[in-house]
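Record minuted for completeness.

…
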Amino acid sequence: MAKTRMCPCGLPAAYDDCCGRLHRGEAKAATAEQLMRSRYSAFAVGDSRYLLETWHPATRPVSVDLNRRTVWEGLEIVRTVDGTAFNQAGTVEFRARYRGGELHEVSRFARVGGAWVYVDGDS
């Protein structure tokens, strides 16, 4: 029997059933926090296509070069403000641990065409 890979986002679910379905385009993030978690997972699994697709058109870079040597070890959501189905914007403060360090950021999200996208963040 194959071992089920847990989702890097930290929720107690298999990757294929959690962020994997967003990465494959089978579902869209329902909240800013869910998008944040799925973007963290995209960094962890090396999915630059998904990162670009979920970036706000006004702030999206031309490309995303992922460092394949970075080993992401965990995500902690510190707080969320708005970012629900009833909002057009939201923020998510998080700490993302990687081997040798930590990224602490307050990220801003907005809805574009009904879908949540990453706008920018302050580290």
User: Anything to note?
Assistant: Strands lie at 72-82, 89-98, 101-112, 115-122. The two ends are 42 Å apart (CA to CA). The CA atoms of residues 22 and 28 lie 6 Å apart. The mean pLDDT is 94.
